[in-house]
Amino acid sequence: FPSHDILLKKSARAVRDIIRDQGVKGMNITYHDIFPDTHISNDNASVKDWALDGQYFNYTGTGAGGTITGVGTNCQIIDDPVKSSIEAYNLRFLDEQYSWYVGTVLSRTEYVGKEPIEIINHTRWNTKDLCGRVLSSDLGDKWFVLKMPIEHEGHMLCEKILPYKSFKEKEAGIAAEDPYIWRANYYQEPIDMVGNLFKNLLTYDKLPEDGERIVTGK
User: Fold this and answer.
1) What is the DSSP letter of 73?
2) How many helices (H) and strands (E) does the chain have?
3) 17 confidence band (pLDDT: 50, 70, 90)
4) How many CB atoms within 10 Å of residue 202?
5) pLDDT, tens digit, for every residue of 47-98?
6) Torsion angles phi and psi, residue 170, rounded to 5
7) Residue 129: burial class (beta carbons within 10 Å; 0-12, 13-18, 19+)
């Protein structure tokens, strides 16, 4: 369940095409090399809904907040449902997203011989985001948390994707402008945990009287 339709189509097409790809013999290992008997059905191979040969359907995709009427699942992946800090600051948006998860997504899980698999992957913007609410629920201790900061003590998570020099250049620009968004994006530290919701809070020795303007504070 990506956050919007463009990402949904890209993700769904990528998964389908990875299974279809047979590659070039002797080159990179493909999905077909590992699972040679797995094939996408020619009669049911649309981008958003497709099936493997001999089965009714195996994959369906919808945007976060979208409908999955009539679909039962034993594996659910919610990918990046919060697009930006603007949505992360919006508690109404987060409430609606959690209601969709509880009222729609969870109602589609099927226990066919074993517990269904759930994966939620997104930037931790806010302690009240989907990950935060799931982990603070009564079933929070059932989840495995994988947190991978992009850098730790000068060592990059993946030097090939983002070299340390480029990382420091980004830090000089983004962190200088908004260190809280920087920590959320690259270190998975929710913004409200580091005080960004209440910054530059002034205190006064006495309350202002009617018509009085106090211009100094501590």
Assistant:
1) B
2) 7, 7
3) confident
4) 8
5) 777 788 877 667 777 777 666 666 678 888 888 888 888 888 889 999 999 9
6) -60, -45
7) buried
* 3-class SS of residue 50: strand
Q: DSSP label at 191?
A: G
pTM to 2 decimals? 0.68
Residue among 61, 55, 56 at smallest CA distance from 15: 61
Residue pair 48/60 in contact (Cβ under 8 Å)? The answer is yes
40 phi/psi in degrees, rounded to 5: -75, 135
Residue with tokens 């495995």: 144
**pLDDT for res 130:** 93
Task: Report which residue type is found at 180.
Answer: Y
Structure tokens given for 208? 């202002």
